[in-house]
Design brief:
Two copies of one chain form a homodimer. The first copy, chain A, is of the alpha/beta class and 255 residues long. The first copy, chain A, is built from ten helices and eight strands. Chain A has an eight-stranded mixed beta sheet, sandwiched between helices. At the A-B interface, α5, α6, α7, α8 and α9 of A face α5, α6, α7, α8 and α9 of B.
Amino acid sequence: MQKYNIVLIGAGNVATQLGLALKKSNHRILQVYSKHNPSAIELAKKLKSPFTTSLDEINPTADIYILSVKDDAIANVADHLRLKDKIVIHTSGSVDMESIKACSKNYGVFYPLQTFSKTKKAEFKKVPICLEANNKNTLKILETLAKSISNNIHKINSQQRINIHIAAVFACNFTNHFYAIADDILKSNKLSLDLIKPLIAETAEKIKDNAPLKMQTGPAIRGDKKTMEKHLKMITDKKYKQLYKLVSESIEGNN
Amino acid sequence: MQKYNIVLIGAGNVATQLGLALKKSNHRILQVYSKHNPSAIELAKKLKSPFTTSLDEINPTADIYILSVKDDAIANVADHLRLKDKIVIHTSGSVDMESIKACSKNYGVFYPLQTFSKTKKAEFKKVPICLEANNKNTLKILETLAKSISNNIHKINSQQRINIHIAAVFACNFTNHFYAIADDILKSNKLSLDLIKPLIAETAEKIKDNAPLKMQTGPAIRGDKKTMEKHLKMITDKKYKQLYKLVSESIEGNN
């Protein structure tokens, strides 16, 4: 398998886990950049690579430059770079591919669809990687790179990618918020989230082989007004009450 | 371990899985009742028990009577029964224990905290069972019964139980609805829910060992207004737009 020389621009959760996975697949991480000195040092140490905190010192000899900085910094960083025909990619779900076109003739997106943290090692093999490129040759190289770390590769355009991101916000970010609300309600009643962890696990498990719409349970889908009213009376937090009403209405609307 | 003679009143998802688990632990299911003939026959067949569709024909010789009918039917069914000092329990998350007090001197609640279906066999050993009883002796018998099918037993009062149910509605019913919304958004863009299934699994997995509040990711917790505005522009469905706004605000409020 082709090995690439890579510069990692960014040192957050995605850059960390992606860097570790690429290194493990024997690509060479030539350099790590972060504007924050401690982050740059931390990741450079993990990857045994040199680092810089200045965009002017980016190593110009790599094959691929991975922009894994905050969404609203991507275009700015790309504007600072002049990398001619080197491949430059960003890793964001929401940023248009064209926003980095200033820095090179060959650019694209390499969006790993998973929730990462710096400390928990990611199992990259199953992580879906969404690829987009401004030309065929670049796409081919991105496919080679992606296949070296994952078995789950998809060609996705910018419009689809932002919709994937929206879907992920509902199914993951919002879902986690509801876990947090459940935790809060239980704690207020001197109970532990442990009580409903088997239920949370089973709810996520069930949709592996079934359409979620068909798996819907609970008072709203049954049209059980009496239970919903009882719940609304018990919920003291105004925001939770509002959420309970709106989500229940949305479920009833699907009925 | 003590074996009990049991009458199952109801033949839905909970009655089915509970009946199967109790039979497996060598309790005797003396009789199954359902007002719907086909349901009664179906469950009676699975449990190899006699059945009836008339409350007047309930076998009076059992030790324990399990009311596993719809929430709004529980009190009515209990009013029809006169079982003196037999133990009578219901299995609902939302119905007050006292609503069945008319039918016996010894009554209680046996609430298995899981999402059940008739066809998918439940792993009862880990299912939390919430117990409540109107006297100590009844509670002791319910504990013996619960321990025979699960390792996860909790003494829970009616006030706590309804709050557990509310927490479960947020963490499971509402969560599943958000999976359904994600599925819908992806399908509208010719994409499959499979793409974000690893992300859904990881989101549920992460909170096994971490407080959900600390695991929150996504544009709302980052205060990333630009991405949220972009998402809101892309979401065409009015209800989804409303949900996106309200849940994001709720996440920002926690920040």
